[in-house]
Design brief:
- The structure holds 2 protein chains of 2 kinds.
- By secondary structure, chain A is α+β, with helices and mostly antiparallel strands.
- Helices cover 41% and strands 20% of the residues of chain A.
- Chain A has 2 domains: 207 residues, Metalloenzyme, LuxS/M16 peptidase-like (Cytochrome Bc1 Complex, Chain A, domain 1, 2-Layer Sandwich); 192 residues, Metalloenzyme, LuxS/M16 peptidase-like (Cytochrome Bc1 Complex, Chain A, domain 1).
- In chain A, strands 1-2-6-3-5-4 form a 6-stranded mixed sheet, with helices on both faces.
- Chain B has 2 domains: 205 residues, 2-Layer Sandwich (Cytochrome Bc1 Complex, Chain A, domain 1); 182 residues, Metalloenzyme, LuxS/M16 peptidase-like (Cytochrome Bc1 Complex, Chain A, domain 1, 2-Layer Sandwich).
- Helices cover 44% and strands 18% of the residues of chain B.
- The chains are: A alpha+beta, B alpha+beta.
- Chains A and B meet through helix 2, helix 4 and helix 12 of A and helix 2, strand 5, helix 4, helix 10 and helix 12 of B.
Amino acid sequence: MTQDLIVSSLPNGLRIVLRELHTAPIVSTFMWYRVGSRNEGEGLTGVSHWVEHMLFKGSKRYPKGSIMQLVDRHGGEANAMTSRDFTAYYETLPSSQVELALDIESDRMTGALFDPAEIESERTVVIAEREGSENEPRYMLHEALVATAFQQHPYHHQVIGWKADLQAITRDELYAHYRRYYSPNNAILVMAGDFDADQMLSMIGDKFGALSAGELPAERIRTEPDQRGERRVLLHMAGGMPSVQVAYRTPAVSDPDYMPLVILNSVLTGGSAPFHGAGTLARSARLYRALVDTELASAVSSSYQDSLDPYLLILGAIPRKEHTPAEVEQALKQVVQRLREELISEAELHSAIRQTSAQLAYANERVRNQALSLGLLSIVDQPERLMNIMEELAAVTPESVQRAAQRYLVDDRCITGIFEPEV
Amino acid sequence: MQGSLAITPERVVRQRLPNGLVILVIENQASASVALQGQFLAGSQFEAPEHCGLASLTAAMLRRGTRQHTFQGLNQILDGAGASLGSYANERYAVLGGRALASDLGLLLNLAAEMLREPAMDATEFAKARGQILTNLGIYLNDTGYRASSAFDKALYGPEHPFGRETIGTPESLISMQQADLTSFYERIYHPAQGILAVSGAVRADEVAAHFERLFGDWQPPHQPPQEEIPPVAPPKGVVRVDVPLADKLQADLVWGTLGIARDDQRYYAARMGDMILGQLGMMGRLGNRVRDELGLAYYAGSRLERGAGPVSWEISAGINPADLERTLSEIDAVVQGMRAELVSEAELADCQSYLVGSMPLGLETNTDLVAQLVAIETHQLGFHYLQRFPELIHAVTREDILAAMQCLDPANHVVAISGTL
């Protein structure tokens, strides 16, 4: 049913990753661009995400609204996402309609109009999106925490961008960003599903072969300097319940410590599928038992996201009203301390690997998820890594988890954020 | 394997045990996992208004320990297998959902049986669960979307109606709740004769059905099975507006709507298609096109016809800057009026039909999708030919049918609830 991965490229630099899967009459097509908030300079925060919005607002070939209309007409789904490291567009369609997805993405790479009136109406939409997040104290704390963690690296700002920049960015700046980064030699086409790979390669050549490679800007990403001493953030705003977030610096996905940290994260809060993100909260995991079972907190969470450059493992908790954020912070850090000081048991390791494997199996039931994982890996590492993921998981040991904890989960290099509602 | 014919009478094993419990199993050998869904008529409709939250907390307690396993015992077993199993209640039903790798099917079914038949309702776990819900409620009460939705339900159905109450409970009702209330609710309401259990995955259907029979065949509670008790509701007269102020919010959420058309009404498919054209297809239908795309007033603006029996709601929702509130409301009125006054276009009808029929494979890709569809088919007595009949049902709907169904939504008679810093 499942064939090997096919990795290829066109002379214009477009990278191609294909995986045949004949479990359902569906093909998922993703076009990934190596541009995200990481590539945004001063005054232009949020520009990548706004460009993503504009690529649904019309080209000569596909007028505004027509992409979604055409995909809907065939019973498919289409959307896009912007992250720190990438922008990606996708269509999942019945396999008989796959050419439509290729045609949309081929046109989208160069044909978007950026009509000035559409830019202005989208400005308020993007600002409204940001304001919806700003309603949430936990979002505001997260934004402040990450901005405190990264003082020089562009991971400093959120993908949505700062509101002052969203109010000021011009049509020329948006269009220049589009022209700078949207070219075949900065893109990866990932497809998974019910197709014949040889025929698909030929169709891809027809659709994308005539596009010219662009001149990509030299990448000048500042490396975040070493952090010396804990940093703390305190947020006060109206309403809600207090919350605690603690961020620890973690390496890029390509680092050998990545998979031990995936398992460490699972030991703390439950397994999630690497290179995908879907996961579940395990209520036998250490953080739940130490904070929720003891009635210190009503909920715990963790976020360990796949990234091109070193980023963060962020642990969170909502204190119950009988307890202070300080008590919860202390208990959370004690759990982390134990990971540094003691080996996890073989049973915990086995459970964490089993949870992670199961999450992968669940995620892979959707063709779209397979294309998503392959694309994400193509951005942050190499797609072939997905085929060896079980071997990587099996190689994790209690010792490698403890080494990773000692190396990265360091109190003196953490960032602690506390939200306390204003009374 | 999956596709529009993933569920057919030939592929579904259906058994009704002598105690009334319905078992549904479908094989999906393309998958490495299994999914379980259970549904029992044990929702908040059976709780007294002063005990709101009782059904929800009772359902949550099923997962917090059984006679054989403590809460942490269950957690250890499920987490160790990479499996999950949870339970919650809505207005109508208590719902059980789980999944596991196919090799752990037995474990999943055995624990589900323990939860349903022998919940511990332990006092310590009750206190913990209630404390967690109270904290979560503190977060929800500061959420503009939750507050607008909750105020809308209360205004549309009335505070005493099961659909108008807070399913999760209120601080007052939860604090006054006793462990004995949960035990009593469980013993009075949960009954196999009002239950459905469905499994999909890499299994042998006959073996799963036999396993279910061993686990549930002798479940015979002494009480009578509960009967649906949803009171009828009259549609709103005039415009009922409710403002819920919350401090320090940049965005306001609004819910605009009225009573919809129930799943068993012959106008249902026309209403569903009208709803898609109004607020779903493309970038949130005509509403999204006008309010978001053309005017830039909102990040989201769409509609949703609830899919169920009885007095279901039909809601339009949007997230907006408070300064744009009145203009947004007037635009919503205008879009709704357009849907009421004129036939949808031939192209809109054709797009809607092709979307609904064409998207069937995508909606049935996973085991979780399949068990949800099986339970819906059984609940609404659609028959396992339903997916084969579905294209015909959709293509039978005319533009005139949609126009007639759209008369439900009325700018002159509706409820609108708004929450934010107004």
